[in-house]
Amino acid sequence: MHRFLLTFGLGVATLAWCSSSAGADTRGAASTDESGADAIASTSVSHGQSAGTREDCTYELVPTTDDNPVYDVDGSVITVDGTGNWYEKTCGTTFVGTFYISPANPLDLLAEARSRINLPLPQPSLSPNGEQIVNLTTWMWIEPTDMADQSATAAVPGLAVTVTAVPESAFWTMGDGTIVTCTGSGTPFDPSQPSASQQSDCSHAYERSSINEPGHAFAASVVTRWRLSWTVAGAGEGGDLGTIDRTTTFLVPVAEVQTVNVNPRGAP
């Protein structure tokens, strides 16, 4: 039995039969959540800028004294604990504001490090390619790099905050009412090897065809869920930031193959 890879064309999902084992490139092709991880992490939510659109931010030390205080928006003088410094934050050419950053108050560095995390969209691949077959096991996988640990650090002299994103699982919504949870990226099918010698750790068997579905295909999706945490170098601070999901949707046509028994000529 040959298995084939699901591939996508630009802008719309297209199905092509091939024997290559290369992963499907869905970046900018399949429908996605169109959001990066440039946001406050919260359970099962992803907001913010698309990957690659943010500008780097820098911090410039601002000397302050009692004769040159820093004021809050209500006009009151901002009090500090004496362990940190004031910094003017600029992103690209845009002045963002003045922030007090200390080991006890690293929140702006936390927000900056979190915004630098660039979580990839999952790129789904299926085998067989093209139409799936009722009761034939479908292999699912995404690129291993789509579930590799990510980290980013924001720092000022003497203080650094690191945010780390670790993939927890991939959820495949198959469009037929089934959700398959896979702890890893899945195992690609290798067409150069015998089918009997391979095994999938992320699969699904459709029990009905998609003939009655809109467009004669199941609307499927794959979600990668990431757990975010943060640490402060040398300060013993940090903690959990919740989860962020990245989602890619795609279409899966499923056909039903009928078996017909034909008696040999002359057989009773």
Molecular structure report:
With 268 residues, this protein is mainly beta. The chain has one helix and 14 strands, in the order ββββαββββββββββ. It has one helix spanning 107-115, and strands at 31-32, 57-62, 85-91, 94-101, 124-127, 132-133, 137-142, 150-156, 159-173, 179-182, 203-205, 218-232, 238-252, 254-255. The strands form four sheets. Strands 1, 8, 9, 10, 12 and 13 form a six-stranded antiparallel sheet that branches. Strands 2-3-4 form a three-stranded antiparallel sheet, covered by helices on one side. A hairpin with a 2-residue loop joins strand 8 and strand 9. The protein is elongated. The protein starts with 30 loop residues before the first strand and ends in a 13-residue tail after the last strand.
A few lines on this structure:
The chain has 268 residues and is mainly beta. The chain has one helix spanning 107-115; strands at residues 31-32, 57-62, 85-91, 94-101, 124-127, 132-133, 137-142, 150-156, 159-173, 179-182, 203-205, 218-232, 238-252, 254-255.
Helix and strand pattern: EEEEHEEEEEEEEEE
Number of strands: 14
From the spread of the alpha carbons, the general shape counts as elongated
Which runs of at least 5 residues are low in confidence (pLDDT < 50)? 1-53
Distance between the termini: 32 Å
How much is the average pLDDT? 76
> Which percent bin holds the helix content?
under 10%
- Main sheet attributes: strand count, strand direction, barrel closure: 6 strands, antiparallel
> Helix tally?
1
Q: What structural class is derived from the secondary structure elements?
A: mainly beta
